[in-house]
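User: Quick one: structure for sequence A, then sequence B.

Assistant: Sequence A:
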Amino acid sequence: MMDTDIPVENNRTEVENKEPSLHQESLGSFLRRERLKKGLNLQEIADGTCISITTLRVLEEDDTNRMPADVFVRGFLRLYAEQVGIDSGVVLKMYARSKRESGQGGQEDQTEANDRKGVPDRTLSDRFGKIIVFIILLAVLGLLAFYLVDPSFRHSFFNG
């Protein structure tokens, strides 16, 4: 009896890792099917991953209008897959494919490509410049306030 159990487990793993069958099924349907196959409910997934049940439903319903930012979705999908015991690589490939098919992948794919090439993010440098200007402004205002409040500083400042 043990000999028959081992091939069944191996066959299940091979079936789960085959992507051609996944092309016909949406990511949310696949996640729901795998969760139910393992006998898990959404509350158990939420408890194990600290992802809200509302977000889990959004993922399983493929509700792209209510999904959070892409970086969060990928993280949630990775945690979900680990909790259910499925290959997170397959899940993330399905997510990328669904984004490409829906036409949503263009901008974020370019951002990821720039990150790999080492292209600087203009918004980061712009933000850094604004922070520097803010710090300098605070320093000037601090000196001005100190000058106005402390008469000995005023005297030593002008008389050297």
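Sequence B:
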Amino acid sequence: MRFTRATKRNLMSVGVAGAALVLAGCSNAGEGAVSGAALGALAGFGLGSLSGDAGKGAAAGAIIGGVGGAVLGDQNSRR
């Protein structure tokens, strides 16, 4: 099954919005990193499978999500 560029962009937007909502509830950097890595891995797996390499997508998503989640969690705990 092939997805158009617009469909991929829409899927990415939904994933980013969902991750932002979940990560907004994290109270510290550790929780944010774990949540972000999990959500990033799922999103990366899905997007990677569209391009033919789900493993690399999941790994990249986990790294990016973990770092982003740690930053957001740290900012939430400082407030």
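The longest helix spans residues 54-78. Helices lie at 5-23, 29-51, 54-78.

User: Thanks, that's what I needed.
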